[in-house]
Amino acid sequence: VAVLAPEATELEVRRLVEGVRLRGFEASVYDVGPGVILLPSVSPEDLDELIGGHRAIERVFIPDTRYCLVRREVEPSGTAVRIGDVVVDEGGFAVVAGPCAVESREQLLATATGVQSAGASILRGGAFKPRTSPYNFQGLGMRGLELLAEARSRTGLPVVSEIMDPHLIEPMYRLVDAFQVGARNMQNFDLLRALGDADKPVIVKRAPSATVEEWLLAAEYILAGGNERVVLCERGIRTFNNTTRYTLDLASVALVKRETHLPVLVDPSHATGDPVLVAPCSLAALALGADGIMVEVHDDPRLALSDGQQSLTIEAFAQLMDSLRRLAPATGRRIASPLHTLSA
Ligand code: PEP
Ligand code: MN
User: Fold this and answer.
1) Whole-prediction pTM
2) From ligand 2's centre to the CA of 148, what distance in Å?
3) Strand positions, DSSP E, 193-258
4) What is the pLDDT of residues 323-332, one digit of tens each?
5) Which of 18, 30, 147, 289 has the most C-beta neighbours closer than 10 Å?
6) Dihedral sign (CA 282, 285, 287, 289)
7) Are the beta carbons of 148 and 142 closer than 8 angstroms?
């Protein structure tokens, strides 16, 4: 992996790549971090002769992993991903909050204004729901996305919603500020490839049975497809323990933060399945260096059509925000907020 120098010009890079190809080696340029050239077939011995000392190259590293573009060495200070007007990066802590599913206009607007006044950074809400049982509420579909767009203009919060089908990229495009790849679709490679071609941030949730390597390779697909605006999200993995819904793998979050330059979120709602555990796990996520959380909040969890058992009330969410605001300065971070907050 050759990382480009900031002063490298397009012409220099093109000539360098053409030269490498003429010698019979593969070379491809990716717009990730400062820009990189992947040279998959060049041996370390040939590397120096091919590109060594070239003005356009800042540094070269040889990855010992199958993923390359997501590696920390590409952007050692971390990548900032902008979702709407909110910057998700290591200086801030992004709080993505909202209902599991968009259920009605009243439910969504009550929850959206509730989380916005409590200080959330980004609104979440599923319109296409991946439900384990076909008899459960499947989401409002496009109508749900229209409601999310309305909630966005009411609150000024950018919105994120799950996408399950590549054909929905186009109709969803203007209604959401980020696409969410759900845990069940982390290895839907057609979807990952299509999102690599989309000009919109993507939040990639870890599948409950995915290794860290598989999770990072899912992100690599999107970067390799040309979209570098990727955020990872740990949401619990399946283990022998059944006292929490899944097992929140916080150690892997700390590991992944060292391994990749992409921002990493923690979803304590799906991971624990228990609203009582959401606040302590959120504080742990902030303390260990995650770049934000994704939490489920409902204006009346008892009536929720999906994941009500783990959703926070708006009051509990406001308390969580208070605790996060108290801890944030000790971790050198501030809670992320939209750059242009709408006037009330
Ligand atoms: C969700 O965020 O509502 C969701 C379905 O999460 P996951 O894909 O992590 O199960
Ligand atoms: Mn949910």
Assistant:
1) 0.97
2) 16
3) 202-205, 230-234
4) 999 999 999 9
5) 147
6) negative
7) no
